[in-house]
TrEMBL record:
<feature type="binding site">
    <location>
        <position position="214"/>
    </location>
    <ligand>
        <name>Zn(2+)</name>
    </ligand>
</feature>
<dbReference type="GO" id="GO:0009086">
    <property type="term" value="P:methionine biosynthetic process"/>
</dbReference>
<dbReference type="InterPro" id="IPR003726">
    <property type="entry name" value="HCY_dom"/>
</dbReference>
<dbReference type="InterPro" id="IPR051486">
    <property type="entry name" value="Hcy_S-methyltransferase"/>
</dbReference>
<keyword id="KW-0489">Methyltransferase</keyword>
<dbReference type="InterPro" id="IPR017226">
    <property type="entry name" value="BHMT-like"/>
</dbReference>
<dbReference type="GO" id="GO:0033528">
    <property type="term" value="P:S-methylmethionine cycle"/>
</dbReference>
<dbReference type="GO" id="GO:0032259">
    <property type="term" value="P:methylation"/>
</dbReference>
<dbReference type="GO" id="GO:0008270">
    <property type="term" value="F:zinc ion binding"/>
</dbReference>
<protein>
    <submittedName>
        <fullName>Homocysteine S-methyltransferase</fullName>
        <ecNumber>2.1.1.10</ecNumber>
    </submittedName>
</protein>
<keyword id="KW-0808">Transferase</keyword>
<keyword id="KW-0479">Metal-binding</keyword>
<dbReference type="Pfam" id="PF02574">
    <property type="entry name" value="S-methyl_trans"/>
</dbReference>
<feature type="binding site">
    <location>
        <position position="278"/>
    </location>
    <ligand>
        <name>Zn(2+)</name>
    </ligand>
</feature>
<feature type="binding site">
    <location>
        <position position="277"/>
    </location>
    <ligand>
        <name>Zn(2+)</name>
    </ligand>
</feature>
<feature type="domain" description="Hcy-binding">
    <location>
        <begin position="1"/>
        <end position="292"/>
    </location>
</feature>
<dbReference type="InterPro" id="IPR036589">
    <property type="entry name" value="HCY_dom_sf"/>
</dbReference>
Amino acid sequence: MQELRLDRPLVLDGGLATELEAMGHELADALWSARLLADAPEEIVAAHAAFYRAGADIATTASYQASFEGFAERGLDRAGAARLMHRSVELARLAGEVEPGEHRWVAASVGPYGATLADGSEYRGDYGLTLQQLREFHVPRLETLAEAGPDILALETIPDLVEAEVLVEALSGLGIPAWLSFTVEGDRTRAGQPLSEAFALAESEAITAVGINCSDPDDVLPALETARAATEKPLVAYPNSGEGWDSEHHAWTGDPRLSPRQARRWREAGALLVGGCCRVRPEDITAVAEALLDPES
């Protein structure tokens, strides 16, 4: 574990699953990229290395959809599931050795409960679970990922204020910093709560940065402005490419709209962790990195 200091902008990676699919892997699976932790770990290393080579400072692990419950459905006991979660951090570390550089940090991805349902629930929230059920789901995986020694935890694509509160509470005692990023629609979380209330959770000592991910690029700047009114902590922004998903035909539609100019504006608004999510490739991250480092870009 290395200290991750946010005293300058840092570049996040892009869509890990997108890159793995581009490498020829079929990820239409309830475990998504986490399936390759067992089936093709070397390919995960290669994908992380591609983003490091493109200019990313931080690799986000293939654990977004990893859970004890999901692995149990594939016949893995808790010890086996824990080994794969640990492996997600180890593979990102290995990628930093394959593609060495000045900054090689690892963020352990912690997706929402809805991600494990593989039915789009992470874009709706409000799963009908009690607070205790959410705790029982999240606490063991947080503890397991923390044991692997990532530099930071990425509580990401969170659609619901209630789930975010459970996650922030569960950070207590782990001893690892975390960023918290919501998936949003306009000025609200996907579950419909005001972003001002969601971003107020950044005042927890356990939260290093707060912002949004896996959302439309056009929603980022207004969200960051709302976040800045709620906290002085660093902000995080890594939206999708801007393309839309046609669930009926299982195809992406429209053109990418994530641009280096947008990234520069996010930096000016207080974002110190900037990158991309779904459909964002290494070449896109190179453009973002150049925009963040060049004040004239």
